[in-house]
Amino acid sequence: MIFLDTSAIYALADARDPNHNRALELFRQALEGGEAILTHNYVLVEAAALLQHRSGLASALQFLKEAEGFQVHWISPEDHRRAVGLLEERGKRELSLVDCVSFVVMRQHEVKLVLAFDPDFESEGFVLYSGTTE
Predict the structure, then answer these.
(1) Which of 69, 76, 83, 130 is 20 to 30 A from 42 via CA?
(2) CATH of the domain at 41
(3) Beta carbons within 10 angstroms of residue 35's beta carbon
(4) To the nearest whole percent, how much of the chain has pLDDT over 90?
């Protein structure tokens, strides 16, 4: 199972993003390798808002329809509280609540791999997905 972050979602959707080609290749490899894709509803909201703002409503809607194929963890009040506590504990301005929710969800599901272009995941002890090796 691989966790999918907003940074990778945006890179997949926008051909002008510097990580676009890498994101396409990694996503293709994950799917061909039979990896399940995990995300959570805060990432869906964040990614849809970013896509709508930068690329338009059609892009956001297309993403939301495609996201139905992902395993989506719906954030509970307890998940949210734990993430807020983690955000406060880390005390980093650059770290977002959505990232902290991702860390909480990844630990709950025992997922170590993340498709992301955000170094905060590595700082938190997760492994950036680098594709399959043949």
Answers:
(1) 130
(2) 3.40.50.1010
(3) 16
(4) 94
CA–CA dist 116, 12 (Å, integer) = 11
Please choose, from the candidates 114, 131, 119, 79, the residue with its C-alpha nearest in 3D space to the C-alpha of residue 100. Answer: 79
Identify the CA nearest to 43 among candidates 116, 129, 127, 110. Answer: 116
Q: Which two tokens stand for residue 18?
A: 């510097």
pLDDT tier, 133 (very low <50, low <70, confident <90, very high otherwise): low
At 93 the pLDDT is 85
pLDDT tens for each residue of 46-84: 999 999 999 999 999 999 999 999 999 999 999 999 999
**Number of domain units in the chain:** 1
Report yes or no: 101 and 40 within 8 Å, Cβ to Cβ. Answer: yes
Q: Residue 42 and residue 96: Cα distance in Å, rounded?
A: 11
Q: Which domain holds residue 57?
A: 2-128
pLDDT at position 102, please?
98
Is 133 among the domain residues?
no
Q: How far, rounded to the nearest angstrom, does the alpha carbon of residue 64 sit from its chain's CA centroid?
A: 14
Mean pLDDT of the chain: 95
Determine, yes or no, domain membership for 63. Answer: yes
